[in-house]
Amino acid sequence: MTTAIIGVGNIGSTLARHLTSGNEAVVVAAQDESHAEALAQELGPLARAASVEKAIAVADAIVFAVWFDTIRELVAEYGRLLEDVVVVDPSNPLGFGADGQVFRTLPDDQSAGSVVASVLPAGAHYVKAFSTLAADALASGANREPRRAVLFYATDDDEAAATVERLIRAAGFDPLKAGGVAAAGRIEAPGGDLHQFGLNGALLDLDQARAAVASTEARA
Ligand SMILES: NC(=O)c1ccc[n+]([C@@H]2O[C@H](COP(=O)([O-])OP(=O)(O)OC[C@H]3O[C@@H](n4cnc5c(N)ncnc54)[C@H](OP(=O)(O)O)[C@@H]3O)[C@@H](O)[C@H]2O)c1
Asked: What pLDDT, on the 0 to 100 scale, is given for residue 134?
């Protein structure tokens, strides 16, 4: 299996590092190809760099580790290549004001996941994942001992679920499904009750994460 990681910033580079450490092959791409080439060189034989189009074309799974608006632009441009591919979306609907304050870029009742899922071709296998931890926690939280930390995901698609569980495990975390795409907002920030920000910064183990899903489900 080859996983394309589009975007090699905070999230994309961390994920590429974790996945290659977990023996997964990745192809990385960025706006500036030299950024992807530098990362691939650092990561060794399991990583290579390509243009965005080539990376998408060769991949079985694609992580769009770019900002929400860029995902929409890339889907509009490369949608034809996304049929029968697992599309992993880590985006959060947030922006930063001039004062540095975080603000929500979508209405409260609309998740980034629901928007991205709605613009994909019908044959794409969509999953929201890798959105819940700040990049520094994603970097430092892998392979935690004695109990691994959980990464939540949300999907309506069994193939996407199986693939993302494999990637989450390879990255050094335990996977847990928060629900279908309708639950994507719960694992996004701002506002998601299962996002690290909604959990007061905590990284949960599997028992704690199951309890968090159940208790919030009970309240809903
Ligand atoms: N940062 C976090 O703590 C965090 C946590 C959870 C989820 N997320 C989500 O993860 C996503 C990425 O965040 P980030 O912090 O990693 O962003 P980032 O550090 O700003 O990196 C963005 C990456 O996107 C690439 N890019 C921009 N336009 C592109 C295009 N048209 N084609 C291909 N690549 C393009 C950039 O390429 P260049 O390298 O060439 O500039 C860069 O590598 C966002 O949706 C964010 O909401 C972030």
From this structure: 97
Pocket test for ligand 1, best of 5, 6, 8, 10 (most atoms within 8 A of CB): 10
210-213, Cβ contacts within 8 angstroms, sequence gap of 24 or more: 210/176, 213/152, 213/176, 213/178, 213/179
**Nearest ligand 1 atom, CA 13:** 16
- Backbone φ and ψ of 56, nearest 5°: -65, -40
Contact 6, 66 (CB under 8 A): yes
How far is the centre of ligand 1, averaged over its atoms, from the C-alpha of 219 (Å)?
34
- Measured from the Cα of 64, ligand 1's closest atom is 11
Query: CA-CA distance, 207 to 214, in Å (whole number)?
Result: 11
Helices and strands, number each (H, E), in the chain? 8, 10
pTM of the model: 0.97
The backbone region for 200, taken as left when phi is positive above 0, alpha when psi lies in -120 to 50, beta otherwise, is left
Assess contact for 82 and 121: CB atoms under 8 A: yes
Spatial CA neighbour of 198 closest among 133, 101, 118: 133
Residue 199 buriedness (CB in 10 A; 0-12 / 13-18 / 19+): middle
Q: pLDDT tens digits, residue range 167-219?
A: 999 999 999 999 999 999 999 999 999 999 999 999 999 999 999 998 866 55
pLDDT tens-place string over residues 61-119: 999 999 999 999 999 999 999 999 999 999 999 999 999 998 999 999 999 999 999 99
In angstroms, rounded to a whole number, what is the distance separating the alpha carbons of residues 97 and 37?
Answer: 32
